[in-house]
């Protein structure tokens, strides 16, 4: 699976599921993270990609945190 597909099916879907479980409309999340009206909807449908900072804010607005995990310790540069 390529990175973009994984991002959509994993990260974004988890945020969509969390928003829905909280019963929040997309517009409420727009307001909470101070982005243009309809932007969260565009992120959720894949019409736009959030910046790393926006992704962080989106997760925080839903009571989530991002965590980096090492999954391949054999990387050498």
Can you offer a commentary on this structure?
The protein is mainly alpha-helical. The protein has a single domain, classed as lambda repressor-like DNA-binding domains (434 Repressor (Amino-terminal Domain), Orthogonal Bundle), CATH 1.10.260.40. The protein is 58% helix and 0% strand. The protein contains 4 helices and no strands. It has helices at residues 3-22, 26-33, 39-45, 52-61. The longest helix is centred in the N-terminal third of the chain and has 20 residues, at 3-22. The protein is elongated, with a radius of gyration of 14 Å. The mean pLDDT is 91.
In short:
The protein has 77 residues and is an all-alpha fold. It starts with a helix and ends in a 16-residue tail after the last helix. The protein has helices at 3-22, 26-33, 39-45, 52-61.
Count of alpha/pi helices: 4
Strand/helix succession = HHHH
| Beta fraction | under 5%
CATH architecture: Orthogonal Bundle
Low-confidence stretches: none
What percent of residues adopt helix (DSSP H or I)? 55-70%
Give the overall shape, derived from the CA principal axes. elongated
Report the major sheet.
none
Structural class: mainly alpha
Number of domains: 1
Q: What is the averaged pLDDT score?
A: 91
Distance between the termini: 24 Å
In total, the number of strands is: 0
């Amino acid at each position: 699976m390529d990175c973009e597909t994984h991002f959509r099916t994993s990260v974004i879907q988890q945020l969509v599921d969390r928003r829905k479980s909280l019963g929040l409309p997309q517009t409420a999340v727009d307001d909470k993270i101070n982005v243009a009206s309809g932007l969260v909807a565009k992120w959720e449908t894949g019409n736009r990609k959030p910046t790393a900072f926006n992704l962080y804010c989106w997760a925080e607005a839903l009571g989530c945190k991002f965590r980096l995990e090492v999954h391949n310790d054999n990387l050498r540069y």
